[in-house]
Amino acid sequence: AGGPPAAPGSDTYKGWLFKWTNYLKGYQRRWFVLSNGLLSYYRTQAEMAHTCRGTINLSTAHIDTEDSCNIVLSNGGRTYHLKANSEVERQRWVTALELAKAKAIRMRNNQSDDSGDEEPASQSDKSELHGTLKTLSSKLEDLSTCNDLIAKHGAALQRSLSELESLRVPAESGEKIKAVNERATLFRITSNAMINACRDFLDLAETHSRKWQRVLQYEREQRIRLEETIEQLAKQHNSLERACRGAPGLSSASTGITSTAKAGSVQSAKGEASDEDEETEYFDAMEDAPAFITVTADPKHHRRSGSNLSGASEGHPEDWNLEDSVFESSNQSSYNESTCKDLLPKKRRRTRIPDKPNYSLNLWSIMKNCIGKELSKIPMPVNFNEPLSMLQRLTEDLEYHELLDKAVKCESSTEQMCFVAAFSVSSYSTTVHRTAKPFNPLLGETYELDRLEEFGFRSLCEQVSHHPPAAAHHVYSKRGWTLWQEITIASKFRGKYLSIMPLGAIHLEFHSSGNHYVWRKVTSTVHNIIVGKLWIDQSGEIEIVNHKSKDKCQLKFTPYSYFSRDVPRKVTGVVSDADGKAHYVMSGTWDEKMECSKIVQSSHGSTSTEGRQKTVYQTLSPKVLWKKYPLPENAENMYFFSNLALTLNEPEERVAPTDSRLRPDQRLMESGRWDEANVEKQRLEEKQRAVRRRREAEAVEALEEGKDYEGYVPLWFERKVDAVTGELICVYKGGYWETKDKQDWSVCPDIF
């Protein structure tokens, strides 16, 4: 190991050490960096710029030495066995580690002491400054005393040297005595200069400390004022929203919606008509926002012809009811009755699961070594999970499947697009409170949801790849549609937030019309990973394309901003035909509802400050397409599961032995036995790693013999090039439901 380039007394200490990895590889050379009380290591020095292999906090670590060259660091469940190149090298590191540990403990204690209110903290700062100045004054007095002693003894020394010069000594000795005398004089002059410099420093410290104190106090007062102002603005914002929603007689007005005519950046109103003066005030405050206006117009002046919209061919308000009660802005109960009256389940499903245990866990101790890594490669205890697998979460997208049943009945492709767009947004409604992580499925794990008799569809998912994790999904509905997708989850932990990026296209085809829709999911972000309450946001854009008619729908998920006056979790979009002509405006929120407004007239508005042309859409009153079902009672203690989610892990007979319902660690967690679930989870993951190692060995053996190795082959899906997108995608090849009828599961692997 090379010697560290930094001294043990400095803030940063770096160098090569040997770290124990495992019994196969033994000790491996690693580059270690000690900084700010943290010891981190990398495979190479170049990795310092992007990849940290591990970090241990010295403030709570135990430092031990086994022999002349070994160091053992332990902190909780983590232990580093390190070896230096020599005993001297080992001692340097031990000294640096002990100093860093002591400093880290002092910093931690100081941080815990500084958690009081602003005014006491200010008084503490003042006393600390005065104490520092008092210490400096004391040291200055000590230096003055030393200076006096130096001057006294220096004068005596010079007298002695002068006496020596007066004696009769050889010429060479006289020269040496003279040189010593000159150096003594220089020493006395230098010490006097040092004392004067120290006195000047103390004077400056006293002068500037008062200035710094005033600046610090001013900044604190400004911060308090800013916090009070923001709090007041937030309260006013909420009051205005409540006043706007509670104002009578607003729903009858036609709504004019302005959007920026630029590809990929569609903006529209939430769909609720509001007071004209309030709207003007709103958008004067937002300089670059598109202008939203409210227009009260006689719909008879906007009659249109040549449209194939069922029940809305001429844009007349009383004709604006495409399907009975589909677009009606009714309350939740009447909506559920109108949409689900013929979909009542024939089998009684469970309505609750055991309450979530209240276990405490130090998140930072686990997550601090995961920054920048792929989430699927981080070993996590079940404490961060919910008792559902990713396959079940994927199936949960079907909660509002009745939207697709209604889309089948649409005669117009643009009208059908509205329902498909609402369905694509509805899949995010279950995520608003669901901050827990689903279980990563094992390779070959499956999940079926057979609701053919109850709701007309049956769904099958299979985990077709482990690294990267990918799941294939196929849904068939006897009511006239088929949906399939292959989703790969890419995720990155960035310290303060976690980004989850689903990759892959979702396909939806209607049997009678042949309309084939394709879209992709947006990015989900989990905020406040380390400190504060976890919350989820969706952001990005969805482009839904009908590859038969070339109709498009651009949906924009607006990211949350504390300073924005937009409705939180806002989704807006425009449905246009193959010629680019806009027909409908979509608006709403991804956690509550989506509305559809028919466009009766469009015109070009003013140009924005960025030089973009604006288009003004005049629309009829919005109609509700989708509204979120209320959560079941006691949902906050049941992981905020919806009614469908509560049934997804309900035990069922005759399912495949690879079904997620049979996964033991997930079942133990649902029962509240988390410690046993963690043990079982480790067993399953180690079993999967053993299978992967065996498969890798077989691949190496086949390569040495010059044979082809096919690798893992999904059981119920097969890879094909999609004719629409040209991508390689896993599609259902058939056979699962037939195998279930025969109850011959001999082809299934043993994964549990």
UniProtKB/TrEMBL annotation:
Alphabetized InterPro entries for the sequence: OSBP_sf, Oxysterol-bd, Oxysterol-bd_CS, PH-like_dom_sf, PH_domain
Chief subcellular location: membrane
Composition bias type Polar residues, residue spans: 251-268
Residue span, PH domain: 10-102
SMART domains in the cross-refs: PH (SM00233)
Phosphoprotein in keyword set: yes
Statement: the UniProt record of this protein carries the keyword Phosphoprotein: yes
BP GO annotations: lipid transport
Cellular location(s): Membrane
Keywords: Coiled coil, Lipid transport, Lipid-binding, Membrane, Phosphoprotein, Transport
GO molecular function, one term: cholesterol binding
Similarity comment: Belongs to the OSBP family.
Record-given protein name: Oxysterol-binding protein
Species annotation: Corythaixoides concolor (Grey go-away-bird)
Phylogenetic lineage: Eukaryota, Metazoa, Chordata, Craniata, Vertebrata
